[in-house]
């Protein structure tokens, strides 16, 4: 849908005021297009500068992070934390440690988080952070010193009722542990609800490690059921082989699909017999190696260097590495090879052109802000457990995750139909998230 004149002017102003932040512009443009039917139905949604406020972060921090490597040499990185919206609760969202991190990347991720977190129904606002630090090849001691240096500044901005970071690319439970240790040391408080994604002995939640990947698959299951289909006997291809992909592979195979390919930044592995999650875990999480090591352990697999996996024929694609990793040509190849469904495990992994190809071909398409919301939803469950010093069982937490994903699926579907776009999960997710956050903003007054 084309933008009306007022929204076009708003979008132009956002591009002018946030130069060189292409990913942020892209994320905003998608939402503005999607919510046009809601703005047409209820023009009062524009009152009191609501749209302008929605697209302007409440606060943004950028800071120097100085740390020393194992040889005693000093390094300087740039740290970020953006609190985009606290209308629904404390800022909530992960930290990304990757050399490509910029303010624009953090802003796009924090903006996406507004709608995703609203969809969970769990009382969490939206934030995101990170640093342009490259963890690859760094020793455990270097990672710890970097995390401590990063938290030395970040601690001023966060807290269980203020802003609650978690993991993202390059930040797993090891990093969260070091970050929480430094937070505890500086503040003299064991305030477990300040960070989520912790290991169990320091206040973590069962299911949080699995939650994003499992959640994507629960969403896929609901989306396929809507079309009278299931995962049984389907072939799937994923990108990435980190936290999200590894657990999505486990759940997909548990539900009867075969995952024939996954990737990292160096290439992809292909095995028609199915990727083995325990081997992947050993290579990635224990030995911290790249995927070229996989065929050494599984000779039926082949490693294809320097390529993405989107030319591999499959029924289901789950892009779970990074933004804009699946473009128009990839989408065309997937559709030609018989694709029936896509669920975004990563944040904004498909370019707008790729999404168009999928939608035109009537492929079931689940946007990341709906499909990968299981991670942040289970972080909110971790916050609940921390607040009551409780520890829920795996089945209980997994059941809450599965229910949350089914609810998100249903809200997207019914909202899309209500606004004249049946089956369009992008429109459904954006309008449902927008209506929730905008009503809270109106109740809170002009802030
Ligand atoms: N962790 C979570 O709970 C959630 C994560 N997400 C999103 O899911 C995606 C993956 O996150 P997660 O699994 O946690 O991260 P991890 O760091 O655990 O894994 C990231 C994976 O993606 C690959 N990758 C990263 N950057 C690139 C790139 N530029 N090109 C190709 N491959 C790349 C990595 O390969 P290599 O190791 O070679 O760099 C690795 O295989 C991200 O988009 C994140 O924002 C969304 C919701 C929640
Ligand atoms: O668990 C969280 O708070 C963050 C998850 C995240 O970063 C995301 O949803 O993209």
From TrEMBL:
GO terms of molecular function: glutamate dehydrogenase (NADP+) activity; nucleotide binding
Any single GO BP term: glutamate biosynthetic process
The protein, known as: Glutamate dehydrogenase
Coiled coil: none
A Pfam family hit: ELFV_dehydrog_N
Keyword Oxidoreductase: yes
The organism's place on the tree of life at top rank: Bacteria
Catalytic residues identified in the record: 128
Residues engaged in binding NAD(+): 212, 243
GO cellular component terms listed in the entry, alphabetical order: cytosol
Amino-acid positions noted as binding substrate in the UniProt annotation, renumbered to this chain: 92, 113, 116, 167, 379
Chain ranges of the Glutamate/phenylalanine/leucine/valine/L-tryptophan dehydrogenase C-terminal domain: 205-445
Family: Belongs to the Glu/Leu/Phe/Val dehydrogenases family.
Site annotation Important for catalysis: residues: 168
InterPro entries in UniProt: Aminoacid_DH-like_N_sf, Glu/Leu/Phe/Val/Trp_DH, Glu/Leu/Phe/Val/Trp_DH_C, Glu/Leu/Phe/Val/Trp_DH_dimer, Glu_DH, Glu_Leu_Phe_Val_DH, NAD(P)-bd_dom_sf, NAD_bind_Glu_DH
């Amino acid at each position: 849908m084309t933008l009306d004149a007022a929204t076009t002017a708003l979008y132009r102003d956002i591009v002018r005021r946030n130069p060189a932040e292409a990913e942020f512009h892209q994320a905003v443009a998608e939402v503005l297009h999607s919510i046009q039917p809601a703005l047409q139905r209820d023009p009062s949604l524009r009152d009191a500068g609501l749209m302008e406020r929605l697209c302007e972060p409440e606060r943004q921090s950028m800071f120097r992070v100085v740390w020393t490597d194992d040889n005693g040499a000093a390094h300087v990185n740039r740290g970020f934390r953006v609190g985009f919206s606290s209308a629904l609760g404390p800022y909530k969202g992960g930290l990304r440690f990757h050399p490509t991190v910029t303010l624009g990347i953090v802003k796009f991720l924090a903006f996406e988080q507004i709608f995703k977190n609203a969809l969970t129904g769990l009382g969490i606002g939206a934030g995101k952070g990170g640093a342009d630090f490259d963890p690859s090849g760094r020793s455990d001691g270097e990672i710890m010193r970097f995390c401590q240096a990063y938290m030395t500044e970040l601690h001023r901005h966060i807290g269980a009722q203020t802003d609650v970071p978690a993991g993202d690319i390059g930040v797993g439970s090891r990093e969260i542990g070091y970050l929480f240790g430094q937070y505890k040391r500086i503040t003299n408080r064991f305030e477990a609800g300040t960070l989520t994604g912790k290991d169990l002995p320091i206040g973590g939640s069962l299911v949080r490690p699995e939650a994003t990947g499992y959640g994507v698959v629960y969403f896929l299951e609901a989306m396929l059921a809507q079309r009278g289909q299931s995962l049984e006997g389907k072939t799937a291809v994923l990108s990435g082989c980190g936290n999200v992909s590894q657990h999505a592979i486990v759940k997909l195979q548990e539900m009867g699909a075969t995952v024939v390919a996954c990737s990292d930044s160096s290439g992809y592995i292909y095995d028609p017999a199915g990727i083995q999650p325990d081997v992947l875990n050993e290579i990635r999480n224990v030995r911290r190696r790249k995927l070229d090591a996989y065929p050494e352990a599984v000779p039926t697999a082949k490693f294809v260097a320097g390529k993405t996996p989107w030319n591999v024929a499959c029924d289901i694609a789950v892009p779970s590495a990074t933004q804009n990793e699946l473009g128009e040509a990839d989408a065309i190849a997937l559709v030609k090879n018989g694709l029936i469904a896509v669920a975004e495990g990563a944040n904004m992994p498909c370019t707008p052109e790729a999404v168009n190809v999928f939608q035109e071909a009537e492929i079931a398409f689940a946007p990341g802000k709906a499909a990968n919301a299981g991670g942040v939803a289970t972080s909110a469950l971790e916050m609940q457990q921390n607040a009551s010093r409780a520890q829920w069982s795996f089945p209980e937490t997994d059941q809450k995750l599965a229910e949350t994903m089914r609810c998100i699926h249903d809200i997207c579907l019914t909202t899309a139909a209500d606004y004249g776009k049946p089956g369009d999960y992008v429109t459904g997710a954006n309008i449902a998230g927008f209506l929730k956050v905008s009503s809270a903003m109106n109740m809170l007054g002009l802030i």
